[in-house]
Design goal:
Elements lengths: L13 H5 L21 E2 L6 E2 L8 E4 L1 H9 L5 E6 L1 H9 L2 H5 L6 E3 L18 E5 L8 H5 L8 E6 L4 H13 L4 E3 L10 H7 L8 E2 L4 H10 L3 E5 L7 H7 L5 E6 L7 H6 L2 E3 L12 H21 L4
Parallel strand pairs: 4-5, 7-8, 7-11, 8-9, 10-11, 10-12
Antiparallel strand pairs: 1-2, 3-6, 4-6
Helix pairs in contact: 6-7, 6-11, 9-11
């Protein structure tokens, strides 16, 4: 499997990926302490880790993240580190059949000396794997899907760097059937173990596209017919109103980081700006909560549209 593609082509849907064949990569080159030689610093820590964007490998941890990565035929697994208890838990949760093809890569570890190079604060539950990052490709196929019926819904994240927020957004995107989550290659949350654990398996199934330039990606999608609605607390229009106006179009929901919000260029590329109305003076939502609210509101607006004037 190739690494992340720097081009905007080659986007693959969940259905396409589900039909892929299981492939296993060669063992990774190890340094003195068992980590990949190509490694960077894990965001928010002082520890070097192979689970960063500049690496050719990522460490995923936690029972759910490990199980779903093993179930993904597109994941190329290099190492599997399990405590006896974690292996038993996986075996009880249909993981035995998933582990069998990787038997030679399994290391049974003492829970008191867990050898995976994870941040000490990581709640790994005795399960970790080293794997190659996924490559979802670019946005060309997403833009081409603008003519689909029903029209697709996608999200764009403007410098949302917290992996826990992005993981939660990927979960919501999967629940509501979003076509993709888009974030720029830099200044956003890369594929890490923390993101995978927060996504609770959604990282393996939900397209997470990483174009070099987010503005160019938004422009390409609006040129293809997407309505790009940017969420802005000071916008004059409520989200419900904006969604009704765009209910029969492909939709891109654009969200900014907490605090700074959308950058000025990002706002200028949106076809409209809208706010999530609040009942009180405290009008701020966590970005992952805002994404879930916006996706739900979009699903309702599009359902109502199909029942009435959009038929």
């Amino acid at each position: 499997m190739s690494k992340r593609d720097d081009t905007d082509g080659g986007f693959r849907s969940r259905a396409t990926r589900a039909q892929g064949r299981s492939r296993q990569g060669p063992p990774s080159p190890k340094g003195r302490h068992g980590t990949s030689r190509r490694s960077g610093r894990q965001p928010g820590t002082g520890r070097r880790d192979a689970s960063t964007e500049d690496s050719d490998s990522v460490w995923l941890f936690g029972i759910h993240a490990v199980r779903d990565a093993l179930a993904n035929p597109e994941r190329r697994i290099r190492r599997i580190v399990l405590t006896p208890n974690a292996r038993q838990r996986l075996a009880e949760d249909r993981g035995a059949a998933l582990l069998e093809p990787h038997a030679e890569r399994i290391e049974i570890a003492d829970p008191r000396r867990f050898p995976a190079p994870l941040d000490p604060s990581s709640v790994h539950q005795g399960a970790a794997i080293e794997a190659e990052p996924l490559s979802w490709g670019g946005i060309d196929a997403l833009a081409a899907g603008a003519a689909n019926d029903p029209a697709p819904v996608a999200l764009a994240l403007d410098r949302v760097t917290d992996p826990h927020n992005v993981g939660a957004i990927l979960r919501s995107a999967e629940v509501f059937g979003a076509a993709a989550v888009i974030a720029p290659r830099r200044h956003s949350a890369p594929e890490t173990g923390a993101l995978a654990k927060a996504a609770s398996g959604a990282l393996e199934r939900q397209p997470y596209l990483r174009p070099v330039n987010l503005g160019d990606a938004i422009q390409a999608l609006t040129d293809a017919g997407f309505a790009a609605i940017g969420l802005d607390g000071e916008a004059p229009v409520d989200l419900d109103t904006a969604l009704v106006d765009a209910a029969d179009q492909p939709l891109l929901l654009v969200l900014g980081a907490e605090g700074p919000g959308l950058r000025s260029r990002t706002k200028s590329l949106c076809t409209s700006l809208a706010r999530i109305p609040a009942s009180g003076s405290f009008a701020s939502l966590n970005v992952s909560n805002a994404a879930a609210v916006a996706l739900y509101a979009a699903s309702i607006a599009r359902r109502d549209c199909r029942k009435t004037t959009c038929d």
